[in-house]
Design goal:
This protein is α+β, with helices and mostly antiparallel strands. It has 1 helix and 7 strands. It has one helix at residues 2-18, and strands at 27-34, 37-44, 54-59, 64-66, 75-79, 85-90, 96-100. The termini are far apart.
């Protein structure tokens, strides 16, 4: 009986040792309007950039107005669309940022 308990305890400890806690990192995105164009800068809290990550401009009726991806500098720029819209930075499950047009720096409310 003691041997079985010891074996079970060793298995649990080995499993815990192999599953080291993952370091959480969260996405961030800031956008600013200057001279009719919006520039968004994105990245992650662990210091990594957002190169190649999807960033779409979407109307309130869910139409993708401007599909895009962050460049090598973790930035993306586009002409400000007419009407109401939001920006979706989508790096996968749990890594999504939405920015409403009202929240863009430089946009008159």
């Amino acid at each position: 009986m003691k041997a079985k308990l010891k074996t079970a305890l060793m298995a649990v400890l080995a499993t815990l040792a192999m599953t080291a806690p993952a370091l959480a990192h969260y996405p961030f995105c800031t956008c600013a309007l200057r001279d009719g164009s919006i520039t968004c800068t994105g990245g992650f809290s662990d210091g990594t950039g957002a190169e190649g990550v999807k960033l779409d401009v979407i109307s309130y009726d869910e139409e993708v107005l401007i599909p895009g991806k962050f460049g090598a500098d973790s930035k993306v720029s586009f002409k400000r669309p007419d009407g109401e819209f939001y920006i979706l930075f989508d790096a996968g499950p749990g890594h999504v940022v939405e920015i409403d047009w009202h929240d863009i720096d430089g946009v008159e409310k």
